Amino acid sequence: MRRVNDTLFRGLEILMVLCLAAMVVMVFGNAALRKLSDFGILLFGGGINVSEEMSRIVFVWLTFIGAVVVMRENAHLGVDTLVALFGDSGRRLCMLLSDALVLICCLVFLWGTIRQAPLHVGNVAPITGLSMIWVYGIGGFTSAAMGLMTLARLLRALTGRLAAGELEAFAGEYDTGSGKPLKEHLE
C-alpha cells in the first residue's frame, strides 16, 4: 500500500512540475510576443489570448495539487512552536482537535464543490470555451484527498497506531539526519 501511495504522490509531483513548466512557457511566451510587438514585430497579434486564460487555470491546478502534496508531507502552516511545548498526550490532543477541524473543513468544501458543480458545468471560460468545472472541480479532488489523509491520521491517533515520529512531525520536530530531534540538533 505504501508503494502505491508513493507512486501516486510521485505522479502528483510530476504533474505539478508539468503545470509549472506550462505556466512558464505560456507567460514568458506571451510577454516575449508583447515585447516584440513593441518593436514592430507582430506575431500572433502581439500575444496569445488562450495562453493567458490557460495559465490561470493551470495555476489553480498547481496550487490545489500542491496543497495535497504538502498535506502528505505535514508541511502546512501550523502552530508547532506551541505544540512542541506539550508532552505526548498534549500533542495527541492537539492533533485530534486539529484533524477534526480540518476534516470538517474538507467535508464542507467537498459538499460546496459538489453543490456548485452543475452551475460550473454550464459556464464556460470566455476565451477557451472550457467548462468552468475544469477550474472549480479541482476543489473536489483536493478536499477529498486531504479529507481522506486527515481521516486516516485521525483514526491512527484514536487507535494508538501513529507511525514512529508522526507525533513529533506534527509538533514541528523533524529528523535532521543526526538522529536527534530538531530542538536538540539546534542546541
Quick recap:
The chain is mainly α and 187 residues long. It has helices at 2-38, 49-72, 80-83, 88-122, 133-136, 138-158, 166-170, 182-186. α1 runs antiparallel to α2, α2 runs parallel beside α6 and α4 runs antiparallel to α6 (138-158).
Report the helical percentage. Answer: over 70%
Query: What is the number of helical segments per DSSP (H or I, 4+ residues)?
Result: 8
The best one-word shape is elongated
Radius of gyration, CA atoms, in whole angstroms: 22 Å
Number of domains: 2
Number of strands: 0
- Catalogue the unreliable spans: none
How large a portion of the residues is in β-strands, by DSSP E? under 5%
What is the mean pLDDT?
88
Provide an overview of this structure.
The protein is an all-alpha fold and 187 residues long. It has 2 domains: 1-73; 78-187, no CATH class. Helices cover 72% and strands 0% of the residues. The chain contains 8 helices and no strands. The chain has helices spanning 2-38, 49-72, 80-83, 88-122, 133-136, 138-158, 166-170, 182-186. The longest helix has 37 residues, at 2-38. The chain is elongated, with a radius of gyration of 22 Å. The relative contact order is 0.11. The mean pLDDT is 88.
Describe the secondary-structure layout.
Elements: H1 2-38, H2 49-72, H3 80-83, H4 88-122, H5 133-136, H6 138-158, H7 166-170, H8 182-186
Helix pairs in contact: 1-2, 2-6, 4-6
